[in-house]
Design goal:
484 residues, alpha/beta, FAD/NAD(P)-binding domain, Enolase-like, domain 1, 3 domains, 5-stranded antiparallel sheet, 13 helices, 25% strand
Length: 484
């Protein structure tokens, strides 16, 4: 519910005051990645902007409970594992007595969140044309917005020549008996969460990227994890070569993966939480844990937007310029229901701002060049077309691949599992897709995304010298394997 959080981020007293003006050039609803990056661009262009967010700070769900805190936790665990593996490889077993405690990882992510919240306060004050207000915005029409204090102490109506809707998304809770017994990302990673100890065993409902990342991190600490997924496989929509590798790695860490298993209820019994599920063949089973994590995805937050006539199929409909059916209303981020990723929201927000400043749609988002990453151990990432998609479109392509086992950096760090794969359109020799499984996949994929965005040919990458020894050499090593 808007304006209701167990712990609010730090804010500035100025942000709790009502809007300074009654009319603005642009009213931005939401201070996440889909909102504030565009607001800052508009500010630089001389536009007077009102930005409203119920948390009282920037970063949206990504900073409050999502990508930043979850990666701060997983990185803490990752660094300990890497050091342990390196020292074990040379016979030093003393390191095995060193343990990363969940509480330590949670403290670290709190510090990172707090640091970034203070940074955002500074950034807001650096953009003098942006009035930031901690409150809840309710749209009246395509120009008017009512802004209310979260505690109801004041209420103001303002007008905007343009609106930028960036209301984000909300976690999905499946409508089954006992659903309220499960926790979610806010309890796990929320700012200064009260859940600061790791349970002994966990049932994760949902085998998408959020559920898989949680399972990977917890199992690295020795927690017994079971994933319950209703679809035939985990990570629906991901490249099949990645899915097989991730599932094999999870099982090697003791994670049980139950697919084709639809959750029908959750109950408490003998101090445990019991998840009941059914399979298509009628089989009914259950799995128990001291905690249940609901990770079945997120939905665009479109409450109150019907008045604009821009909501279709549960999301705000936009074109590639980020403009909605209402000519003066733009939208960006999770609310448009495309790539529900922070980095996608940022670029969508900037594109919307630039088009507002030009007075007409000029710039477009290249959705084909948006990378997706799994922050598991090891990482996985993909961008552009997968092999399945290329085949379905009848594209004559070649897949070239390089194993990280042969990469010098991977050998130094002791992370030789994985590979880099490039998809090349045979006739044009353009790179049309990429898949990375292994160390630093979240970094490597960005170069492949750039290659796709600029229509680079495979030999452009093959001839690009990367610093040695870095894992980026694996990209040109894969590219040079292409032959007509």
């Amino acid at each position: 519910m808007l304006g209701k959080y167990q712990v609010f981020p730090p804010t500035d007293p100025e942000f709790e005051d009502p809007p300074q003006l009654s009319k603005y050039d642009v009213v931005v609803i939401g201070g996440g990645g889909g909102g504030y990056h565009g607001a800052f661009e508009l500010s630089k262009g001389g536009y007077r902007v009102l930005m409203v967010d119920d948390k009282g700070n920037l970063g949206g769900n990504c900073l409050y409970e999502g990508c930043i805190p979850s990666k701060a936790v997983s990185m803490t665990i990752y660094l300990m594992e890497k050091l342990r593996n390196i020292l074990n490889s040379v016979g030093n077993l003393d390191i095995n007595r060193v343990r990363v405690l969940w509480e330590n990882a949670i403290d670290h992510k709190d510090n990172v969140q707090h640091m970034r919240y203070l940074q955002h306060i500074r950034e807001l004050k650096e953009h003098g044309n942006v009035d930031f207000v901690k409150g809840v915005a309710k749209i009246v029409d395509d120009h008017k917005v009512v802004v209310e204090a979260a505690d109801g102490s004041w209420r103001r109506e303002v007008e905007g020549e343009h609106l930028l809707v960036a209301t984000g998304s909300a976690p999905i809770r499946i409508p089954v008996p006992g659903a309220d017994l499960a926790i979610g990302s806010e309890e796990l990673f929320g700012y200064r969460t009260r859940h600061r100890s790791v349970p002994s065993d966990v049932v994760v409902i949902g085998g998408g990227y959020i559920g898989v990342e949680v399972a990977s991190a917890l199992s690295s600490l020795g927690v017994k994890v079971t994933i319950v997924e209703m679809l035939p496989r985990i990570l629906s929509g991901w490249d099949s070569s990645i899915v097989g590798q991730i599932e094999e790695k999870l099982r090697s860490k003791g994670v049980e993966v139950l697919t084709n298993s639809k959750v029908v209820g959750i109950r408490e019994e003998a101090g445990q939480k019991v998840v009941e599920y059914e399979r298509p063949d009628g089989y009914k089973g259950y799995v128990a844990g001291s905690e249940v994590v609901m990770a079945v995805g997120r939905r665009p937050y479109v409450e109150g937007l019907d008045v604009l006539g821009i909501v279709e199929r549960g999301r705000v409909e936009v074109d590639a310029s980020m403009r909605t059916k209402a000519p003066n209303v733009y939208a960006a981020g999770d609310v448009i229901g495309k790539y529900m990723l922070y980095h996608a929201a940022v670029k969508e927000s900037v594109i919307a701002a630039w088009n507002i400043m030009h007075g007409r749609p000029i710039y477009e988002v290249n959705f084909n060049a948006i990378p997706m990453t799994l922050f598991t151990e090891p990482e996985a990432a993909m961008v552009g077309l997968s092999e399945d998609e290329a085949r379905a479109r009848g594209i004559n392509y070649v897949a070239v691949q390089y194993p990280l086992a042969d990469d010098s950096y991977a050998q130094i760090i002791g992370v030789r599992d994985g590979w880099v794969k490039l998809l090349v359109e045979r006739e044009s020799q353009r790179i049309i897709g990429g898949v990375v499984y292994g160390e630093a996949a979240s970094m490597l994929i960005n170069e492949i995304a750039l290659a796709i965005a600029v229509n680079a040919r495979v030999k452009d990458i093959a001839l690009l010298p990367h610093a040695h020894p870095t894992i980026f050499e694996s990209i040109d090593r894969a590219a040079i394997r292409f032959s007509l």
